Amino acid sequence: MELKGVSPSEIANISGQGISELDANLEQSLDQIKTSDLHVVETCPLLAPVEVKTELSITPAIAKVVSEARARIRNILNGSDRRLLVVVGPCSIHDVKAAKEYAEKLAKFRDQVSDALEIVMRVYFEKPRTTIGWKGLINDPHLNGTFDINFGIRMARDLLLDVAKLGLPSATELLDPIVPQYLADLISWTAIGARTTESQTHREMSSGLSMPVGFKNGTDGSIDVAINAMLSARQPHRFLGVSNDGLASIITTSGNPDGHIVLRGGKQGPNYDQNHVEAIANRLRDRHLQPYMMVDCSHDNSGQDYKNQPIVLRDIADQVRNGSEYIVGVMIESHLNRGKQPFPKDLAKLEYGKSITDGCINFETTVEILNDLANAVRSGRF
Questions:
Q1: How many degrees, rounded to 5, is the angle at CA 221 between CA 215 and CA 225?
Q2: Roughly what angle, to the nearest 10 degrees, separates helices 60-77 and 149-165?
Q3: Residues paired with residue 87 on neighbouring β-strands, in sequence order
Q4: How, if at all, do strands 189-192 and 248-252 pair?
Q5: pLDDT by residue (tens digit) across 232-257?
Q6: d(CA 147, CA 11)
Q7: How confident is the model at residue 188 (pLDDT cuts 50, 70, 90)?
Q8: In angstroms, rounded to a whole number, what is the distance separating the alpha carbons of residues 156 and 171?
Q9: Residues contacting residue 45 through CB under 8 Å, at least 6 positions apart
Q10: Torsion of CA 344, 122, 254, 57, to 10 degrees
């Protein structure tokens, strides 16, 4: 099409002006279009791990408690120590005062059964949620939705130091991959939960952890998920993480040889009975892994009812008493007082020493069933 009376040079000039105006309009539009942080309300600085660990530092005596417990746990997990590992304590820590009282009681009892049981206190600061709910002491230490995470990290580390001062090792579940930089030097055993065992991030993280790691079977009861996690964590990995100075970093690991499986039941029901245990031992052998496992007495093994944990433990004690070599440890949810209480509610009305997450057996029942387990070890393995 021709434009009558308009020369080619004039057409070029008009086109150039149009393109310039289009570019200017586009640039102005891009300034007004936001493509990041659309749902981020606030970003707060996190204390560097080195700051927290300098403020709340590990001592040689505490380091000895941690490292020697790790060595004993490794020996139990590989079968060279014929005692049982017992990870026992509150479902979650929400009251530091009650946790310390529990630790003091457990440390005294621990000495009474140390010939048969290696007792490690369950000190859980992070709670995976299926939908929503309180995410643990680190995330919300004041239990009021203020999410003072820097304070929560300090509180968690301070409690771990106090527990270790009693000569009592600690165990936890590591959920957020940044948290180990703040706490892992004080942990003797850790769990990777049923919801995260299949996660590549947690398998990579586990490959660099300095303590034995228990991988729970999947919530659907799948054992292969945990076995694959063990095999993955044994290998070297490179992944994104945080350095001791708090810098985003590329982490290179050598692999963790001390992974093992934790049976917690599944949607199809419990998996702690002798038939399940023997079948899982054979499956571990098929994958060229040692046929040893822990049993979580709670969750689907107890039908989500804390009162059933002693029933599970009695069955395990019978298996040990009858010569089973496959079960090398147990997990129990226990607190000062039995049951659980609703949360959130008026904090002043919270009952002391009672869980706000899963229900727990009380300390007296804990002592009773662990004494029975210790006797089973003495008669079945020594």
A1: 45
A2: 80
A3: 120, 331
A4: unpaired
A5: 999 999 999 999 999 999 999 999 99
A6: 63
A7: very high
A8: 12
A9: none
A10: 90
